[in-house]
Design a protein that fits this description.
The longest helix has 15 residues. Helix 3 runs parallel beside helix 4. By secondary structure, this protein is mostly beta strands. The chain folds into 6 domains: 164 residues, Galactose-binding domain-like (Jelly Rolls); 90 residues, Immunoglobulins (Immunoglobulin-like), CATH 2.60.40.10; 237 residues, Alpha-Beta Barrel (TIM Barrel); 89 residues, Immunoglobulins (Immunoglobulin-like), CATH 2.60.40; 104 residues, Beta-galactosidase, Chain A, domain 5 (Distorted Sandwich); 155 residues, no CATH class. It is an enzyme of class 3 (hydrolase). Its cofactor is Ca(2+).
Length: 924
C-alpha cells in the first residue's frame, strides 16, 4: 500500500510539473489590416503594374493601388486577371532544429503558388477563403536567410473556383489577404483534434497525431482558470495514431448565445513521463438537435434565430480585417439584439469565430458557392480545410453548402462524415434537410406557405436591404409572423454593412458599385442607419405590451420574456421621468425597479413605484439591461398629450385687434404685426409677412390624395377672433377649410377632408417652403431618425434639434440621422430658416411631419423600393408611405407596407379625416 501510494504521489508530482512543447508561431506577415509587414511585390496588369515595389501583407492589392477593381457582376472582359508576385526573406530560429515546420496561409486570392528557396512547397492552392499549409521542413535553412516567393493569380485556372467565388454579388479582390506564418511542431505532435462537448457533460474527442506517445493528458479550465473535474490521463496503444477520448463531466456551465461559457481544453501527448506536445482549444458544452417538422433546439430549448448575413469586409482594406473589426461587428450585432450570424458566402477569419464564441452568437459557417459550385475534387479539398480550421468553435451550429444554387450535392455526405458533432447542413435558398430556407418570399406568399407547410422555416435571407429600404422596413410584420409560428426558427437579414470600398484609382471615393453594395444596416464604417434601432426594438428579448399613460396608470407593465435561457430577474430595469425643455436643464426623476421573476417564453408584470407627481412630467423612459450589462432597449412613453402642449404654447389674446381687408383676389388680415394673405377662391395661404419681412411659407393646405375643393368662403368674427371658412357641400365641396386668426397673430387651421380613393399611399396636407431657406428644425416628437409606414419602431420621444443635411441613405457622406423624410408623433416643430423662423403646433395625436423630399437613389430595374413622398415641401400627414426592399415592393412586405384604406361614401363631416395646426409667425 505504501509503495502504491508513493507511486501515486510521484505520478501526481510528475504530471503536475509537466510542461509540454507548444506549437510555435512565427509571423512572416502582420496579423490584420491594423498590423502589416511589407513584402516585395510585382503586379502584372492594371495600376502600378510591371515594376517591383513593396506591399503590406496581409492586404488586397487593389486597396494598395495595384491591379484592377472588379465587382462580381462585371462582364468577363472587364474582370481583372492580374497576378501578384511576392518575395520575402526570413530567418528560422536555430532552435527549431529537428522540428516539423509548416508555412501557413490563412487566405489568399485565388490560385497560390509557393516557393521556398526556389523550390515548390507543394501543389498550387486553389480557393480564396481557406487556411492551407505546406511542410517546408526540408526546404529551409535554420538560422540563415530564406527566400519566400509567392505567385497569386486573381483569376483561377480552375473554372469552378471562378464560378463559386468570382461570379458573385460582391467585390472581387486579389492578394494575400489574411496572415501568413510559420508553424513549428515537435516530431511527435497532434495533427487534429475534434471535440464534441454536450450539454449533459458528455465530452467526446477524436485525436490524430504523428510520432510516438504512450499517454494522453486532458484538462479543462474555465474562464477563471478553475479546473472542471480532474486531470485525466488515458493510455495510448502502440502504433495507434488515432485516439478516441470520452469522459463524463459533472454540471459544466453551458454555452449559448446568451451565456457564452467557454472552457479551455488542453490535450498533451506524453512519452515516458515527459510531455511532448500540447494543444489547447476553447470549447463550449452545448447540444444542437433538429426535430423534424418542429424546430432547432439548443440545450433543449427551441430557438428563434435573429440573424444577419455578414461579409468579411472593411472599406480601406477589402477582405483584410482584424480582430478589432470582428469585435466591433459582433458588438453591433449584439446591440441590435441579434443572436445569430451567417457567414456569407465563405468562411470568415478565425478571429471572427473566436469573438462569436466569447461574446455569444450562433453561427452558420458556409462553404463558398454563390450561384456556381466548386467541382467535386476541389470542393472536397476546400470543405475539409474549412472543417479542419473551424470545427471546434462552439458558436458554429450550422454548416451551409454554398448559396442560392451553389450547392455541390456530392459534398453533402462529407459534412456529416467529417464533423464529430454532426451539426445540421443547410442549403440556403432551398428546401433541404427538413428546412425551408427560401429567400425573399413576399409576406403573403411566404407566411401563407409557411403556415400551411411542414418544414422548419428558416429563411437564410428574408429582407434584402438597399439604401433605406428593407431591414427595419417590414421586419415587424415578418417577425410577428415568425414569432407566433411554432415551425419558424427565425431567419437572417441581408446584410450587415454597406459594401463600399475605397477606390484608390478614383481619388479615394467610396464605391458601392451603384445599387449592388449599399445593402447594410450600418454604413461602411459602421454608421448606424434608422433600421438599426428598429431592429433593436423589434428583436428585443424583453417585449413590452402596449401601454398608455392615462390618469389610472398604476406603474405596471406586462412583459413577455423572449430570451431562450435568461430569466428576467437576471436583467436590470431603470426608469426616468423627464420634463422636456429641449436643453441640458431638463428636469427628471429616476429610479430602479425590481426585476420580475419571469422565465423564458413566459409573461409577467414589472411594477414601477412612481412618485406621486409623475403626471407633472412629459415623458417616461424605461430601460432594460441584460445580465452582461448591455442595454437591451429604452422605451419611451409620452405622458402629456399634444393638446396639453398646445394649450400652453398657443397664445390667442393680445392688446391688438384683428383687421380684415378684402379684394377680388384675397383676404388680407393683420394681427399683432403679422400680415396674412389668403386666396379668396381657394382659401389657401398665399403669403405671411411679419415686421422682419416675408416668411416664405405658403401655398397650403394642399390636400394630398384628395381634391382641394374648398369653396364659397365667408368671414365672421367670433369674439376677438376672425374666422375664414369654406362652406360644406356633400357633392361640390366636401372638404372643408377653416382659418382662425387670433389677436396675438397666431393662426389656426382646421381641415376636414376625404381621400379620393379607397386606397391611398399617404394622406395629409402640403405647404411650400424653399429647401434653400431651411437651416434646421427643433421639434417635439419621435426621433431623431425618420420613419416609414412599415418602419415605425426604433425612435425615442423627446425634443430634437436637427441641422439640415442632404444625406441619402447608403451614399456618401453616410451622415445619419438623415434630415429629410417623415417623423412621427409630432407635438410641435420650429422651422429655423436662414432669415426667419416660425413654429407649428398641433393639438392632435398621431400627426406626421414630412420634411422635403429625400433624394431617390438608383433602384433596380424593378423599382421596388418606391420611397414616395407627397407634393410640396413641408407636409403634415395623417398617414405616410411605406418603403420596399431590393426584392420587394412596399405592399408585399406585410400589412404595414400596404396602402392606407379609407372609405366613406356618404361624405359626412363627422367621418372626415381632420388636421388642426397652429402657426406662430412672430419669428425670432
Amino acid at each position: 500500500m505504501k509503495i502504491r501510494f508513493a507511486c501515486f504521489i510521484s505520478l501526481m508530482l510528475m504530471f503536475g510539473a509537466l510542461k509540454a512543447q507548444q506549437t510555435e508561431k512565427l509571423y512572416l506577415s502582420g496579423t490584420g489590416n491594423d498590423d502589416t509587414v511589407n513584402w516585395d511585390f510585382y503586379c502584372t496588369e492594371g495600376a502600378n503594374s510591371g515594376k517591383w515595389s513593396t506591399i503590406p501583407v496581409p492586404s488586397n492589392w487593389e486597396l494598395q493601388r495595384y491591379g484592377k477593381y472588379n465587382y462580381g457582376f462585371d462582364k468577363e472582359v472587364n474582370k481583372g486577371k492580374e497576378q501578384g508576385l511576392y518575395k520575402y526573406k526570413f530567418k528560422v530560429p536555430a532552435d527549431w532544429k529537428n522540428r516539423k515546420i509548416n508555412i501557413v496561409f490563412e487566405g489568399s486570392m485565388t490560385d497560390t503558388e509557393v516557393k521556398i528557396n526556389g523550390k515548390l512547397a507543394g501543389e498550387i492552392h486553389q480557393g480564396s477563403f481557406y487556411v492551407f499549409r505546406y511542410d517546408i521542413s526540408k526546404l529551409i535553412t535554420l538560422g540563415e536567410e530564406n527566400l519566400l516567393e509567392v505567385q497569386v493569380s486573381k483569376h483561377s485556372a480552375n473554372p469552378s473556383v471562378n464560378e463559386a467565388e468570382r461570379k458573385a454579388d460582391f467585390w472581387i479582390f486579389g492578394g494575400i489577404f489574411r496572415p501568413v506564418y510559420l508553424e513549428s511542431l515537435p516530431q511527435t505532435h497532434i495533427d487534429r483534434i475534434q471535440i464534441d462537448a454536450k450539454a449533459d457533460g458528455k465530452f467526446n474527442a477524436q485525436l490524430t497525431y504523428t510520432g510516438d506517445a504512450d499517454q494522453l493528458l486532458v484538462e479543462l479550465l474555465d474562464a477563471n482558470g478553475k479546473r472542471l473535474g480532474k486531470k485525466i490521463t488515458t493510455p495510448i496503444e502502440k502504433s495507434n495514431q488515432k485516439l478516441a477520448f470520452n469522459h463524463q463531466f459533472t454540471s459544466p456551465k453551458l454555452w449559448s448565445s446568451e451565456f457564452p461559457n467557454l472552457y479551455k481544453a488542453s490535450f498533451t501527448l506524453i512519452k515516458n513521463g515527459k510531455a511532448i506536445h500540447q494543444i489547447s482549444k476553447n470549447i463550449g458544452f452545448r447540444t444542437i438537435e433538429v426535430k423534424e417538422r418542429d424546430g432547432v433546439y439548443v440545450n433543449g430549448v427551441k430557438i428563434k434565430f435573429k440573424g444577419v448575413n455578414r461579409h468579411s469586409f472593411y472599406p480601406t482594406s477589402g477582405r483584410t480585417t482584424s480582430k478589432k473589426i470582428s469585435i466591433a461587428d459582433v458588438l453591433l450585432m449584439k446591440e441590435m439584439n441579434m443572436n445569430a450570424v451567417r457567414m456569407s458566402h465563405y468562411p470568415p477569419d478565425g478571429h471572427f469565430l473566436d469573438v462569436c464564441d466569447s461574446i455569444g452568437l450562433f453561427v452558420m459557417d458556409e462553404l463558398a458557392g454563390w450561384h456556381g459550385t466548386y467541382d467535386t475534387a476541389i470542393g472536397i479539398k476546400l470543405m475539409k480545410e474549412m472543417m479542419l480550421n473551424d470545427e471546434n468553435h462552439p458558436s458554429i451550429i450550422f454548416w451551409a453548402n454554398g448559396n442560392e444554387g451553389g450547392h455541390n450535392r456530392e459534398l453533402d455526405h462529407l459534412f456529416s462524415e467529417e464533423d464529430i458533432q454532426k451539426r445540421p447542413l443547410i442549403h440556403p435558398w432551398e428546401v433541404f434537410g427538413g428546412f425551408e430556407t427560401t429567400h425573399y418570399r413576399e409576406f403573403n406568399y411566404g407566411i401563407g406557405n409557411y403556415d400551411h407547410g411542414h418544414n422548419i422555416l428558416m429563411p437564410t435571407e428574408f429582407l434584402h436591404g438597399m439604401w433605406d429600404g428593407g431591414h427595419g422596413a417590414g421586419i415587424e410584420d415578418y417577425w410577428n409572423a415568425m414569432w407566433n409560428n411554432p415551425q419558424s426558427a427565425g431567419g437572417f437579414l441581408w446584410d450587415f454593412a454597406d459594401q463600399a470600398v475605397v477606390r484608390t484609382d478614383k481619388n479615394g471615393i467610396l464605391d458601392t458599385d451603384g445599387n449592388h453594395g449599399p445593402d447594410g444596416i450600418v454604413g461602411p464604417y459602421h454608421e448606424k442607419e434608422g433600421s438599426f434601432f428598429t431592429i433593436k426594438e423589434v428583436w428585443s428579448p424583453v417585449f413590452i405590451e402596449k401601454r398608455e399613460f392615462t390618469a389610472g396608470f398604476d406603474g405596471s407593465f406586462v412583459l413577455e420574456n423572449r430570451y431562450a435561457f435568461t430569466n428576467l430577474n437576471q436583467c436590470t430595469f431603470e426608469w426616468k421621468l423627464k420634463k422636456l425643455h429641449g436643453s441640458a436643464d431638463d428636469e427628471f426623476k429616476a429610479g430602479k425597479a425590481d426585476a420580475p421573476n419571469i422565465k423564458p417564453f413566459e409573461k409577467g408584470k414589472l411594477q414601477i413605484s412612481l412618485p406621486s407627481d409623475w403626471r407633472n412630467f412629459d415623458v417616461f423612459y424605461l430601460s432594460a439591461k441584460g445580465p452582461e450589462g448591455r442595454e437591451i432597449y429604452t422605451w419611451t412613453f409620452p405622458i402629456k398629450l399634444p393638446k396639453e402642449d398646445a394649450e400652453k404654447l398657443v397664445k390667442k389674446t393680445a392688446s391688438s385687434k384683428v383687421t380684415l381687408k378684402q379684394d377680388a383676389q384675397g383676404y388680407h388680415v393683420s394681427a399683432n404685426g403679422i400680415d396674412y394673405t389668403f386666396d379668396r377662391t381657394t382659401g389657401l395661404l398665399q403669403q405671411v409677412r411679419n415686421l422682419r419681412g416675408i416668411i416664405p411659407f405658403s401655398n397650403g393646405p394642399i390636400v394630398q390624395e384628395s381634391v382641394n375643393n374648398f369653396k364659397n368662403f365667408s368671414t365672421k368674427m367670433d369674439g376677438d377672433n376672425l374666422i375664414i371658412e369654406s362652406k360644406f357641400d356633400k357633392k361640390e365641396s366636401f372638404n372643408a377649410l377653416q382659418w382662425t386668426i387670433y389677436p396675438s397673430g397666431w393662426l389656426k387651421m382646421d381641415v376636414k377632408y376625404f381621400p379620393s380613393s379607397y386606397f391611398a399611399t399617404f394622406v395629409g396636407l402640403n405647404f411650400s417652403y424653399p429647401e434653400t431657406e431651411i437651416q434646421s428644425v427643433e421639434y417635439k416628437g419621435n426621433g431623431p431618425y425618420r420613419v416609414w409606414k412599415n418602419r415605425m419602431k426604433g425612435t425615442q420621444f423627446g425634443i430634437w434639434k436637427k441641422d439640415y443635411n442632404n444625406s441619402a441613405t447608403g451614399e456618401p457622406p453616410w451622415q445619419y440621422p438623415e434630415f429629410k423624410g417623415y417623423y412621427s408623433n409630432l407635438y410641435w416643430c420650429e422651422f429655423i430658416g436662414k432669415q426667419q423662423s416660425f413654429k407649428v403646433v398641433t393639438d392632435q395625436e398621431d400627426v406626421f411631419l414630412r420634411l422635403f423630399t429625400p433624394k431617390k437613389s438608383k433602384d433596380t430595374e424593378y423599382d421596388n423600393m418606391s420611397p414616395t413622398f407627397p407634393d410640396g415641401d413641408i407636409s403634415f400627414m395623417n398617414g405616410i408611405s411605406a418603403i420596399g426592399t431590393k426584392t420587394q415592393k412596399p405592399e408585399t412586405t406585410g400589412p404595414m407596407g400596404m396602402k392606407h384604406v379609407f372609405y366613406d361614401f356618404e361624405k359626412e363631416p363627422s367621418r372626415a379625416l381632420q388636421m388642426t395646426l397652429y402657426f406662430d409667425f412672430t419669428g425670432r
